[in-house]
Amino acid sequence: MVKRKWAINSAFMAFYAFAMVLVCWVGWGFRMSFGDKLVFFLGKPAVALDEKFLLSPAFMGYFPTATMVFFQSVFAAITVILIAGSLLGRMNFRAWILFVPLWLTFSYTVAAFSIWGPHGWLAKLGVIDFAGGFVIHLSAGVAGFTAAFWVGPRAEKDRRNSPPNNVILMLAGAGLLWMGWSGFNGGAPFVASTISSLAILNTHVCTATSLLTWLLLDCFHFGKPSVLGAIQGMITGLVCITPAAGLVQCWAAIIMGMISGSVPWYTMMVLHNKVKLLRSVDDPIAIFHTHAIAGGLGGILTGLFALPKLCRLFYMVTDWEKYLGLVYGLQNGRTSAGFKQMGIQLAAMAFVIALNIVVTSIICLFIGLIVPLRLSDEELETGDDAVHGEQAFALWHDREGFASSKHNNKVYDTDELSFVLSK
């Protein structure tokens, strides 16, 4: 989705983040997120590499702890990688090297422990976040937007003209993402069950509805369908259903898809150009709209549509006053419990937003004291070649020579190639 000159840099940011997060995760991150309580919003840092600990059963003995550690490490990694999407095309790579472990340690673990950890304060209140609408997507969207504010925008010419370097490959990646979300949401119950099956079905139903909704709005508003728009609609559907995937009925997933395909479309295509703050903060691939907005919507809609029976199965509780979607509270005469659940969802949303604005700002300001947050003007002008000494597509580099085929030893430059092809 980025310009040709930033293809290596963008991929490298993700590649590095995945490796760094995994090392930090087994070193201290997992225990800070899911371990013993240090304070009400954070676990005690400890190494998760002890053989006895890793081979011990997790979650009612369904699987080893080692499985839990690795599965959750990928959730943590994708959250940081999403933040990179807001910083493409201008962040100093050395600053990114520092940002990843700092943000994972001081932001992600706090949200994960508070919402998912058995001793977390929001978990005890009864917040519903099936697979990370708050912990992952809202966190990444808000943190990315905040970091983008501190790093500053791309070069003006890159903001004006930023075509994707490979639309077909982008579409292939979107397909892999959609397919992979079956594991993202389907794996959240940590067991093959009715809820995991429902989570996968709801994920695909919501995503398909969201994609089609976005596509229709593009056609009506712009007069033509867009591949990029369809991909954005796909992503907002995946994100929106994530906090509710195994806890709502399919009709609710369809409604959530319609909302996730229309509200983020409006904020991105219409509201973005009218709000000064949104215009001034450079978010190259719209992480704020596709993840912060869609993730927040998903968390709120989960509080509306969560089916009590499914929630009790997932959370293994019998308390009828907890995990009750407002729709069912109104239907069953437990209105106060339904409104309480909505209040808890909104409280969790506010906590995650505040946490990421404050912590991300502090981290960026701290890193700025050590290395520049932003690339130099020369690096911004040149891209990958200046930052890494490498280029993603040497075939199309100006004046680059290459062999035409294995049957012909002649080497053409780009001008000669144009002449040959024209013949």
Automatic annotation (TrEMBL):
It is found in: Cell membrane; Membrane. This is Ammonium transporter. It comes from the Eukaryota. Residues 1-393 form the Ammonium transporter AmtB-like domain. It is a multi-pass membrane protein. It comes from Hibiscus sabdariffa. InterPro entries: Ammonium/urea_transptr (IPR029020), Ammonium_transpt (IPR001905), Ammonium_transpt_CS (IPR018047), NH4_transpt_AmtB-like_dom (IPR024041), RhesusRHD (IPR002229). The keyword Nucleotidyltransferase does not apply. PROSITE patterns: AMMONIUM_TRANSP.
